[in-house]
Amino acid sequence: MSDPKGFPNQISRRSFLRGGLGVGIGALLGAYIPNQRLLALQEKVELQFWHQFGGPP
Fold it and tell me: How far is Cα 8 from Cα 1, in angstroms, rounded to an integer?
């Protein structure tokens, strides 16, 4: 079952938005940027993210 906002009870809205943010940005960029450039950009952004916050390389 889900709450009135449509989010499953076991998934908080915050974690849902946080997980969906990268997917949404990727989809938006994918509509405007050729796949090769998108992949390079995504890799660059991910490396910067991990460098800043720590985590997998």
Answer: 6
Query: Could you give the C-alpha distances from 35 to 1, 26, 45, 48, in angstroms and in order?
Result: 37, 11, 15, 20
Q: Is residue 26 part of a domain?
A: yes
Q: Is residue 25 part of a domain?
A: yes
**Count of domains in the chain?**
1
User: pLDDT tens digits, residue range 24-53?
Assistant: 777 777 666 666 777 788 888 888 888 888
SS3 15: helix
Q: Is residue 8 one of the residues assigned to a domain? A: no
